[in-house]
Design brief:
Mean pLDDT: 78
Radius of gyration: 34 Å
Strand order of the largest sheet: 1-4
Number of domains: 2
Oligomer: single chain
Largest sheet: 2 strands, antiparallel
Helix content: 55-70%
Distance between the termini: 86 Å
Number of helices: 11
Shape: elongated
Length: about 350
C-alpha cells in the first residue's frame, strides 16, 4: 500500500557539481589575473589625458624612450593634445594623419599667420609648434613651415574629460562624415535594419510593454487556471501545427497550378521552396504529435509545476524584476571587460 511522499527540504546540503565549480573558480581567477595584468602594465592615462606623436603623455612627467626624439619631456603644465593639421583625416584607417603635440591651452580664436601663432604662444604660454622650436623662432626659422601647424589654425576647444583640442567649426570633417554616410547608405542590410527599427520604434516599444503586462497578468491567473491553461496551450500547439502545415501545402498546390501556365525559373524556385517547407513542417508536426502522445502522462506534472509557479510569484512579487537585475549585471560585466580591454590596448612601450 503506497503512501504519499512527504516533501521537505534537505537537511544535509552539499555541492552537486564540484568539477564545474572548480572550473568556474579557475575562470574567475584567470579573469582577475588578466584584469590585474592590464592595470599593472597598461597606461590608461594615454586614453584619458592623450599623448603626442613622440609617446609623451600630456599633463605629466614622462620617461625617456631610447631612439625616439622629443620623448621623456616634463609636460605637467601641458594637458591638452593639439594636432598640427586636424582636418587631415585618413578615411581608410579612420584616424587623424597629423603630428600631435601637448599644449597648455587650445587656440580659442583663428590664427591666420605664423605671427599670430607666435603672439598666441607669447601671450598664453602655449607653444603650438614642435618642441624643438622656441616661440621667438616661429617667424625666422625656415623649419617653421614643417614644424608649425597648418594655417589658418582653426578655433578649437578642449573635449571634456579627454583633453583633445577639437575644431569648433567641424566643416573640415565633411569628407569624413560624407564617407561615413556613404558607407551606411551602401550597406543595404544595415540601412534596411536601421530604417526598419526607426520606422517601427513605436510598435516595438508598445509590443514590449504589452508583453510585460500580459506576462504579469498571466502570472497572477496561472495559479487558478493552471489545468485549463495547460489544456489551452496544448490545443493551440496542435491547431497551430495543423494550420501551419495545411497552409504550406495549400500554397504549394496553388503555386503548382498557377505555374503550369507560366513556366519561369522564379516560379520553379518558389514551388521547390514551398515543397521543402511543407515537407519539413509535416515531419515536425508528426514528431511533435508523437512526443505529446508519449509524454501525455507528464501533463499532470506540468499542471503541478504551473500551480507552484503561480504560488511563487504571488508570494515573491519582486521576482518579476529578476530579468532587469540580470540585464544590469550583464551590463556591469561587459563594462568591466571593456575597461580591461582598454587597459590591455595601452600596455607595452610608448611609441610615437
Amino acid at each position: 500500500k503506497s503512501s504519499k511522499r512527504e516533501w521537505k527540504p534537505l537537511e544535509d546540503h552539499s555541492c552537486t557539481d564540484v568539477p564545474w565549480l572548480l572550473l568556474f573558480i579557475l575562470f574567475c581567477v584567470g579573469m582577475g589575473f588578466i584584469c590585474g595584468f592590464s592595470i599593472a602594465t597598461g597606461a590608461a592615462a594615454r586614453l584619458l589625458s592623450g599623448y603626442d606623436s613622440y609617446g609623451n603623455i600630456c599633463g605629466q612627467k614622462n620617461v625617456k624612450v631610447e631612439g625616439i626624439t622629443n620623448s621623456g619631456l616634463d609636460l605637467t603644465h601641458k594637458k591638452y593634445v593639439f594636432f598640427l593639421d586636424p582636418c587631415n583625416i585618413d578615411l581608410v584607417h579612420q584616424k587623424i594623419k597629423s603630428i600631435a603635440l601637448c599644449v597648455s591651452a587650445c587656440p580659442r580664436k583663428e590664427l591666420k599667420t605664423l605671427a599670430d601663432i607666435q603672439k598666441f604662444a607669447e601671450n598664453n604660454g602655449s607653444s603650438l609648434c614642435s618642441y624643438e622650436l622656441q616661440p621667438s623662432e616661429y617667424t625666422t626659422d625656415p623649419r617653421a613651415n614643417k614644424l608649425c601647424p597648418k594655417y589658418p589654425v582653426p578655433e578649437s576647444a578642449p573635449i571634456p574629460f579627454f583633453h583633445r583640442c577639437a575644431p569648433v567649426n567641424i566643416s573640415c570633417y565633411a569628407k569624413f562624415a560624407e564617407a561615413l554616410i556613404t558607407f551606411v547608405s551602401d550597406s543595404s542590410v544595415l540601412h534596411r535594419l536601421i530604417s526598419g527599427v526607426l520606422t517601427s520604434k513605436e510598435i516595438i516599444m508598445g509590443l514590449c510593454l504589452l508583453s510585460l503586462v500580459l506576462s504579469m497578468i498571466l502570472m497572477v491567473i496561472i495559479r487558478y487556471i493552471s489545468r485549463l491553461l495547460v489544456g489551452i496551450l496544448t490545443i493551440l500547439v496542435i491547431l497551430g501545427s495543423l494550420g501551419g502545415t495545411g497552409v504550406l501545402w495549400w500554397l504549394y498546390a496553388k503555386q503548382r497550378m498557377s505555374a503550369n501556365a507560366v513556366e519561369t525559373q522564379i516560379a520553379k524556385d518558389n514551388i521547390q521552396a514551398l515543397l521543402i517547407y511543407a515537407i519539413s513542417a509535416t515531419v515536425f508536426m508528426v514528431i511533435l504529435f508523437l512526443i505529446m502522445l508519449v509524454m501525455r502522462k507528464r501533463v499532470a506534472l506540468t499542471i503541478a509545476l504551473f500551480h507552484v509557479a503561480g504560488k511563487v510569484f504571488i508570494h515573491l512579487p519582486l521576482l518579476v524584476f529578476q530579468p532587469f537585475w540580470t540585464f544590469f549585471v550583464l551590463i556591469v560585466f561587459w563594462t568591466y571587460w571593456i575597461v580591461a580591454l582598454l587597459f590591455l590596448g595601452t600596455t607595452g612601450k610608448q611609441l610615437p
